[in-house]
Amino acid sequence: MTKFTVPARGDVSENNQAIFDNLQKGLGFVPNLYAYYAKNETALGDYLALQNRKSTLKAKEREAINLVTSQINGCAYCQAAHTALGKMNG
C-alpha cells in the first residue's frame, strides 16, 4: 500500500494557508484530500471552485450522493467525512 504524506498548514503556500484557514473555520478541520491537493499551488483552489459551483442540487442532496459514492468506493475516510458534512447540511 502506498502511503501519502499529508501536508500541514506550514508546509503549503500562503494562498493555500488562507484556504486552510477558511476550511478550518467553516468545517472545523481540513480534510486530508484537500490538504493533499494543497501540495500544488492551484489544485486546491480549483477543486474547491468545482465543488462549490452553482448547482440545482441542494447541499444535503450533494452530500447524500457523495456518501453513497464513498460507500461504493469502500473509502472509510470519505464515508466519515461525508457523514459529518451531511449532518452539517441537514
From TrEMBL:
Pfam families: CMD. It comes from the Bacteria. InterPro entries: AhpD-like, AhpD_core, CMD-like. Residues 50-90 form the Carboxymuconolactone decarboxylase-like domain. This is Carboxymuconolactone decarboxylase family protein. It comes from Algoriphagus oliviformis. The lineage of its organism: Bacteria, Pseudomonadati, Bacteroidota, Cytophagia, Cytophagales.
